[in-house]
Amino acid sequence: MKLRMISVAGAAILALASTGLQAETKLTIAMVNNGDMIRMQRLSEAFEKANPEIKLDWVVLEENVLRQRVTTDIATKGGQFDVLSIGTYEAPIWAKRGWLVTLDGLPADYDVEDILPPIRQGLSFKGKMYAVPFYGESSFTMYRTDLFKKAGLDMPEKPTWDFIKDAARKLTDKSNEVYGICLRGKPGWGENMAFLTAMANSYGARWFDMNWKPQFDGEAWKATITDYVELMNEVGPPDASAKGYKENLALFRAGKCAIWIDATAAGQFVTNADSDVANSVGFALAPDKGLGKSANWLWAWALAIPESSHNKDAAKKFVAWATSKHYLELVATKDGWPNVPPGTRRSLYENRAYLDAAPFARTTLASILAADPNHPTVEPVPYTGIQFVAIPEFQSIGTAVGNRFAAALSGTIPIDEALGNAQWVTGKVIERARFLQGHSAL
Which residues of 19-44 are buried (b: 16+ CB within 10 A; e: fewer)? Predict the structure, then answer.
């Protein structure tokens, strides 16, 4: 009787298989709510159609919230997510801790060698990739060509901070809600501190000296924060300390900003058809102070698979699809070449159709290739990373310092107090790290 029951059950399984039905695998994807990622979610029906055995479940979060949720889940091995949106900060640190799946063995047509070297290096640890780039970026200067022309100004290809400050003041027209410059003010290590760290690099500042002593008590940081706060209060938008990347993007697209210095990934969004200033945007490199470093950073939003995932094979199939050449072609077909995720593949910048359609493309590539995370500052430093310091402690100290600088911008505390707080909290965190774990980087 048992044999017959087993044979009947086996027959049922074979019958089920013969119909083409398979057990469904659900992939839970933690995704930042950036425009390129939202488009990927929309176009992912093509992946599900080609892989009917895989269902995609999306958890879409604002950048600061995403980082907190994902970091907590992976550190506790919670297993809540199968695919993570992470960046060049997290990838090597988490790989070193054994938290991520190595992304080797991707299909031959994926063409790993096509990925731009700075982006690939930033997502690798000991020569192996642990995340694949969805889009890559540096930072550059976006500006209103119509306003510049009206004011008789010409934007240099490589502007200085002195030129930017002067132009921003001349272009401000608050009676018509046009602000001379928009810069990140919302606190967070990946929000205001991404911009301010890159700006500080160009001013000759650094987070630490070669002995890991914090440097916020130096003149270079004071000059950086003083210029930033004074400029934003004089010619920036109202409530600037609450405005990050997304808020400033909306302002620029609505014609409210004469100059915006931010991620190169914004190029497509300020020039597409639904932008009020689509036909009057110019692009230049990030500003410098004549000290040999510009305020351009290096970043990639990438897809990674946590070791805690129970669906690693399906997850690898998805991340390969979402970051492939074929996906770029899908976006071009559906939404046009200017909307293809930028900054990841050499072949994209050899594609004449893309170069002709995307006025920001060449400046984007030049900005990415000029970024040097191994030598980010004027004076030598013991760390890598341009708009961040590549140590585990930076996520907490970056956010703490970002809160103090946002308070200085809003006028809640004086600039000197904010710098003093930054010096104190950074020093305490580093001392604690040395004492508790003898951190190899410190």
Answer: eeeeeebebbbbbbebbbbebbeebb
SS3 of residue 212 by DSSP: coil
Instruction: Select the CATH number that applies to the domain covering 139-298+375-437 from these four: 3.40.47.10, 3.30.450.40, 3.40.190.10, 3.40.1190.20.
Output: 3.40.190.10
pLDDT in tens, 405-415: 999 999 999 99
* Helix, strand or coil, per DSSP, at residue 291: coil
Question: 183: left (phi > 0), else alpha (psi -120 to 50), else beta?
Answer: beta
Tell me if the domain spanning 2-137+299-357 has CATH number 3.40.190.10.
yes
Euclidean distance between CA atoms 396 and 218, whole angstroms = 22
d(C-alpha 34, C-alpha 254), whole Å? 18
Q: Say if residue 53's pLDDT is above 90.
A: yes
Counting beta carbons within 10 angstroms of the beta carbon of residue 302, is it exposed (0 to 12), middle (13 to 18) or buried (19 or more)? buried
CA nearest 110: which of 351, 325, 362? 325
| pTM higher than 0.70 | yes
Cross-strand bridge partners of residue 340 = none
